[in-house]
């Protein structure tokens, strides 16, 4: 009937407009995040040079101010990274297509991204390097690994160990990320996945998180139809 065709055409037109708006939104977030990261990198590098006394010694007050700037720059960088990760989660187009992924390379890349964080706490990484390939979405898996690894480093003690292993069976492959942190209190086990929720900060932590990390992990896991188990 003509009425049904008109409704169908109107719905299709609305779907196309919503899809176009989604693409525009994702593109805007990507571009603004990139524009923020470029000057931020220069600020961070300059601050590190000053902090290390590379351009001359600092007095006690100057050193304290420089340390505040370093902490703020690191926090801003983390917020931008979370914004980019959250954009990947919200962007349904990022899930299109499966690709062959080397799991050992994916884990190695995640560790390299966090190399400075690992070095700052002198954490020893113990990773499974045995060859194994899966078909999935590398962008989403990278986001999942990065956020969980970031949390593992954040809550690990200085000179601690982080172990990443994986094993396979006929039904599935299991990836374990094990740190020596205090763990999650049972009463908070569900809340930690809520957007912007932040539990107890680790001891001597100067950088406050955004509260989006585990929310991003949960959303990505659900989109990829995976299972997330935390102990």
Secondary-structure map:
Elements: H1 2-51, H2 60-90, E1 99-102, H3 103-113, H4 115-120, E2 124-127, E3 133-136, H5 138-155, E4 161-168, E5 173-178, H6 213-223
Parallel strand pairs: 2-4
Antiparallel strand pairs: 1-3, 4-5
Helix pairs in contact: 1-2, 2-6, 3-5, 5-6
Describe the structure using short key phrases.
three-stranded mixed β-sheet; globular; mainly alpha; two-stranded antiparallel sheet; 55% helix; 231 residues; single chain
Describe the structure.
With 231 residues, the chain is mainly alpha-helical. It has 6 helices and 5 strands. The strands form 2 sheets. Strands 2-4-5 form a 3-stranded mixed β-sheet, covered by helices on one side. The protein has a two-stranded antiparallel ribbon with strand order 1-3. α5 packs antiparallel against α6.
Condensed summary:
By secondary structure, the protein is mostly helical. The protein contains 6 helices and 5 strands; from the N terminus they run H-H-E-H-H-E-E-H-E-E-H.
